[in-house]
Every structure is written in C-alpha cells, then in structure tokens.
Amino acid sequence: MNSQSCVNIEKEWDIVSARQLGRNLARKLGFGTVDQARIATAISELARNIYLYAGSGEIYFDIVEDHPKKGIRIRAIDQGQGIEDIGKVMKDGYSTSGGLGAGLPGVKRLMDEFHISSVPGAGTEVEVVKWLR
Amino acid sequence: MRIPILKLHNYLLISIQIELDDQTAIQFQEDLLHKIHETGATGVVIDLTSVDVIDSFIAKVLGDVVSMSNLMGAKVVLTGIQPAVAMTLIDLGIHLKDVPTALNLEQGLIKLRQTLEE
C-alpha cells in the first residue's frame, strides 16, 4: 500500500494535473469533500510555487501509516534558487510574486503536518501530511 | 478553453463548469471585460457551483475581475461557492471581503437587481 505517484511540474497545466491526482488519491483513501478540497488546494499552491519560483520540479504522493492513523503525504521538491529566509515566507501576507501572499502559511493551515527545508542555490522541499479522521 | 458568457437582458451569466487552470482564468477575465464593453451589461453573475477548488491564484483572478468590472460600471455577484471551497478559502487566509456573493444563481440575480435599482 506504499505505492508512490509523481507529477512533474513543468508547465501550467501540470498544476491542475497534480491537484486532480491528489484529490483522487484522497477520495480513494476515504477523505471527505472538505478535506479533499483542502488537500487539492494545498497541492495547487505547492505546485504553483514550483512553477513560479523554480521553473520545474516534482510532486510526490504517497500513503503514510502511523498505526492506527492513516494519511496522505505530499512532497514538493525543486532544484530552484531556494529560500534565503524561511521565517519570512512563513509570515502571512509575504509574497515576492505580487500574489495574494496566501502561499505557504495557507498550506500549513490546510494540512496537519508541514515541514520545509531549503538550501539557497540548491532547492526547496516541502512535505505535508493530512491524516484521516 | 473558453468559458461561455451568456447575455440575458442587461445581465451577463457565467457558469464555470470546468477545472480552472491559470490560463483559462486569465482568458475569462479578459473575455468578460470585453463582453461588458460590447453589450453594455450592467450586472454580471458568475456561478461557481461546479467549482471544487479555488486556490489563491484563482481567488485573486476572481476578486480582480469583480474590481475591474466595477471600474467599467458593471456589478458582479459570485454565486454558489461550495461549503468545502468556502472553508478552504478561509484556511488559506482569503476572505474576498469586498466581493458581493449570494447563495445561488437566483439569489444572485435578486441581489443584482436590488443593487442596480438603488
């Protein structure tokens, strides 16, 4: 049950493909419609970050089990320029692209677990998990 | 992919029934403003009943098209936002405070009529 899926993010439409795949996986796992929307939206934000800031990257999906809990894990990985100051991008309202600035703090609120690591000049990895309730 | 815009008397009606990607959303923004200009419509209803994901970018495009239409003199009401979408938007920190909304298409048309008659 630990089959992993991956969507390459290279063009804009890949953002839609990634969130559709994530939503389908979440539905199969038994998530309700609200959590499906949360998961799909979080993926959309993560995929757009890759597309806008790194140009390309990958989003990996898998099922995690931490007995008796079960959930969906999403990892967004890119080899872009990385983030200099993670504290800054985690503040609400911060955006370098002129967007709404919902970005990463929004993703954190949508999901149950959120981990980010970034090496300036080498890339960024964001890992999020949503547990089934 | 183009989103169809229907004209009904002085109103324009749009029902978004496809998965919105960024390009389609931007194209829609442009199409709607041209259609307002072309038809002289005074009210617009954008129905989102079939939309199951609104992320920060799509929310920005929708919020912007409401402001842009206002600048041109047309009032826009967003209708039919699903419960899951409303909850997700608030989690994201997006409140769309200045955007008129209504429960469904019918309520949206009533709201438009009231606003335009004032």
UniProtKB/TrEMBL annotation, chain A:
Record key words, sorted: Kinase, Transferase
Superkingdom in the source lineage: Bacteria
Gene Ontology molecular-function annotations: kinase activity
InterPro entries: HATPase_C_sf, HATPase_dom
Boundaries of every Histidine kinase/HSP90-like ATPase domain copy: 35-128
Pfam families listed in its UniProt record: HATPase_c
Protein name: Serine/threonine-protein kinase RsbT
UniProtKB/TrEMBL annotation, chain B:
InterPro entries: Bact_StressResp_Reg, STAS_dom, STAS_dom_sf
Domain STAS: from-to ranges: 1-118
Family annotation (Pfam families): STAS
Protein name: RsbT antagonist protein RsbS
Lineage of source species: Bacteria, Bacillati, Bacillota, Bacilli, Bacillales
